[in-house]
Amino acid sequence: MTKNLRVKTSKFIDETYKISFKFNGSTYYGYKGDTLASALLANDIHLVGRSFKYHRPRGIMTAGSEEPNAIVQLHNNSPRTEPNVRATEIEIYEGLEASSQNCWPSVNFDIGGINNFLSPVLPAGFYYKTFMWPASFWEKYEYFIRKSAGLGKSPTEPDPDIYEHKYIHCDVLVVGAGISGILAAKTAAKNGFKTLLLDEKSYLGGSTIYQNSENFKINNQTSNSWLEKEINEIKKFQNLEIKTRTSVAAFHGYNFLLARENLTDHLPLNLRKDKTRHRLLKIRAKKVIIATGSLERPLIFDNNDRPGILLSSAIEKYANFFGVACGEKNVLFTNNDSGYETASSLYQKGINVEAIIDNRENIDSKLIMEAEKNNIRIYKGYTVVNTAGYKRINKISIMQLSKDGQKVVGSKISIACDCLGISGGWTPAVHLVTQSGGKLTFRDEDQVFIPDQYPSDQISIGSCNGDFTLDEILLSLPNKLKEFLNIKTTDYDNLEVQSSFNKSKRNIWLLPSDKVIGKTKPFVDYQNDATAKDIKLALREGFRSIEHVKRYTTTGMGTDQGKLGNMHALGIISETAGSKMGELGTTTFRPPYTPLTFGTIVGRNVGEYFDIFRKTPIHDWHVKNKAEFENVGQWKRAWFYPKDGENMHDAVQRESKAARDSAGILDASTLGKIDIQGTDASEFLNRVYTNAWSKLAIGKCRYGLMLNEDGMVYDDGVTTRLDENHYIMTTTTGGAATVLGKLEDYLQTEWPELDVYLTSVTDHYATVSVCGPNSRKIISQVIPDLDFSDENFPHMSFKNAKIGKIKCRVMRISFTGEQSYEINVQANYGKSVWEKCMEVGKEFNITPYGTETMHLLRAEKGFIIVGQDTDATMTPIDLQMDWIVSKKKYDFIGKRSLYRSDTIKEDRKQLVGLLTENPDEVLEEGAQIVADIKKSPIEMLGHVTSSYYSPNLKKSIALGVVRGGKNMMGQKLIIPMENKKINVTVADPVFLDKENKRLNA
Amino acid sequence: MFVINCPYCGEREQSEFKAGGEAHIVRPKQPTELSDDQWAEYLFMRKNIKGIQFERWVHTHGCRKWFNVVRDTSNDVIKAVYKMGEKPPTN
């Protein structure tokens, strides 16, 4: 039977609402309002996990999101399982199941604990140093290292929860609903600003709301009751939106912030169904008020990590807010008044305080006097030098500090305890300011970094600005708000504030010990097990930059991002290296402030919504006819149509053969289509294509190659002259958007004098392409009114026509090398035209073919695919397409680059055909091409870009780029593969119908 | 993510725009008369300034107009926007 450490009733906890939960398999009870941490502490459980490297027992250390130790796995082995959840942040709910991480077989008996005894041989950089060589052995080491390291387990099943994103625009965003944030939000709202107030906790009021003490008063009321009235008032404002359980993750430029609103994590699992779990808020605020408060600092001394050692402020919160005593024999160790504030709270709740150890000497304040009056033993000028107790602290040893604080003197005193509260003062939570690009300044008097320069319209108020005491905060706030919001008065201009807190602090980053540093374990980063010793070692080994020390020792690299210990790391570096803190700077505060789940980041963009996809008007037909699809840009294109259990190869062979033997039909609707009009349209085409356009007759089509200014092939396609000043350009499927963008760029910026208008009409037309020797028979039945004779309708020409009442544009153009017609109709008629072709074509075995067959057919003909046979290093000359480059034209995009010293080199990679010695051997696309296999290293001449088995030629064909390939016709080359080498011969890239008989048939 | 004041549409999120590199690089009128070095200067050489930089941007998901932006690359503060063909601000 565990103890019940619930003390006097707290109004934040509903003791009529009992909740059962499981921790490491055992059932416990807590109340509504508890966090997992407070409920465990109420059950006298401190030991929650094992540390990352040494597997030391670790307990709950904080009461907030900065928790480094008490991180647990929720709902192990279920789709909802989540690792690294801070026990201090998860509100308990009926059915909660949590378990310890990084321990085996159990948190109470952990085999990895042996690392603790091996720690003298596991210094900083141990893994780097030890497992460096031989390099090839890393894979073997890694298996074991990964097994013994690591935090929680990631889920293995799809996330059942829903996440979403939301944009919010507001006048004033207030981050943090402590006393400063509440007052700022109320002031902003009252002055008519559209205000948004966020806080990561489930309640409003920060730490003041449970600061029930005569020591802190506002207008003669205790601070908490005064604040409660303010909170009740702000809830009435229509123009003030309040979001709790909402943690700001990132603060980007121009006051753009990301926050995670947690909507269901506090609910029992059965109430979460169909609800959004997390909402990522994308906030654009005109003004930002940061009131994120401050984080209490631990103290760095030997064995400062045992379960039962907590931040002093956490002990206070557990007592005041949750009504839980963290121990029965409490000792507080402090260098400032915070420890006394906690002692006062504990005393009020009837919780025993054994002693207070204070670094300071000759110090007095109202809070100290109160502690003395309450007969608490106080050791002034003392420090803790060691602690004992493996799974729970049971004793501390203290010694007197020397005057300079560098040494300990006198004899050791032992004090028995089961809980030690530590306070090293406070660190302003400046994470968001620095994320936004703000600059910090170091305040020497109390050794804190505070905001100095803001890059956007924002301010920091309260303790995140270094105003730590209630009187400091409230007396400076009105003027700050007046200036920032440009208002005349606030409700708080004449507050009367009483605070018993004395600001003095004795800051010693690394407390002295009676032992040499090498024999101690003063933890700086609890989660990553980095000690002061490691930091000193890093400095001895020559690291100086804080960023390097961080990476070498892993200080600040855990899921808590070193919220507790980073300042101490800096302090120890500065003391050891003799540099000034302010000059040393800080490590970068990177978003997110607290970890985000992937679900939150991805939002609704999962499964079929992962990316936008575009489908053609004929898409449904392809689906119905069992097409396999391939992604081309954002398009889903029919890839091939397997019949009766065919595999891809068989389907493609059948489709390819049918297209050449009789008729094939392709959905070409995805090709980019740009409508070009204007009196300078011809001149414009002259400038953007390599070939000449002025003389293209109306009703004719022409293939064009488009280059970048660097002379490299960028896109290709057929453009048709519809009228005197009207063209329709087609682009590659993937290039449509960028080609339009590029053309617009030139028109707007280089040639604004041209009278040309561009309109993307890709989606407006469906394109049905019918090819093959019987294509004319089919198409002339589909469009009976049109004369399809060669005389009237030769290759590379265009006709306007009608199918019934449907207007259509018919082009006789070919990408397969077959006689081929493309019918373009208004998109919504696409499917009916396709079906009509299928119906008419039945007697000719018209065969739908997909992109794979299209690729094969064009490869037989030696037509390139931009982006497959080219990359951004191929000129038209490299492609052996000199014929398309006009010699007469004065200029076009990329022309000058075609005779740069580099582009005229003879040994550039050039496109060639490749034929294998064994006609059945199909090359792998991407395979390397070499000439001499004996030379070492083997010289790579190029690679295979396209490769197929041609059913029409009954042999393997391939295209490839080969250095100097143009002059290697007939030469034998080698394709070395993993287990064999394949002999190939360089050939003409046109494998079929060099004379274009089929095209003009 | 910054906010850009499109000279045609007004303030919009950066995600609506695309950057187009350094501004005020004029395509030579007679490229064929340039030496390799001169052409390379136009083609390849771009400044990469820490501080005030003149850049081209296009409102891709808006009016699709190109315009110029004066941006401090060290903190993304946009000092000015002006239309294509207009003179850059001097101060």
β-strand amount of chain B: 35-45%
Major sheet of chain B: size, sense and barrel closure? 4 strands, antiparallel
Specify the CATH architecture of one domain in chain A: 3-Layer(bba) Sandwich
Based on secondary structure, the structural category of chain B is: mainly beta
What is the top-level CATH class of one domain in chain A?
A: Alpha Beta
Supply the CATH architecture of chain B. 2-Layer Sandwich
Tell me which oligomeric state these chains represent: heterodimer
For the sheet with most strands of chain A, the description reads: 7 strands, mixed
Shape field of chain A = elongated
Low-confidence stretches of chain B: none
Q: Could you name the ranges of chain A where pLDDT drops below 50 across 5 or more consecutive residues?
A: none
CATH topology of one domain in chain A: FAD/NAD(P)-binding domain
How many H/I helices of chain B? 1
The number of distinct helices of chain A, counting runs of at least 4 residues, comes to: 23
pLDDT averaged over residues of chain B: 95
Whole-number total of structural domains of chain B: 1
Q: What is the strand content of chain A? A: 25-35%
- What overall geometry of chain B do the principal axes of the alpha carbons give? globular
Radius of gyration of chain A: 38 Å
SS class of chain A:
alpha+beta
Short description:
Chain A is 21% helix and 29% strand. Chain A has 1001 residues and is α+β, with helices and mostly antiparallel strands. The chains are: A alpha+beta (1001), B mainly beta (91).
Summary keywords:
heterodimer; A: 1001 residues; alpha+beta; FAD/NAD(P)-binding domain; Gyrase A, domain 2; 21% helix; 29% strand; B: 91 residues; mainly beta; Folate-binding fold; four-stranded antiparallel beta sheet; two-stranded antiparallel sheet; 10% helix; globular
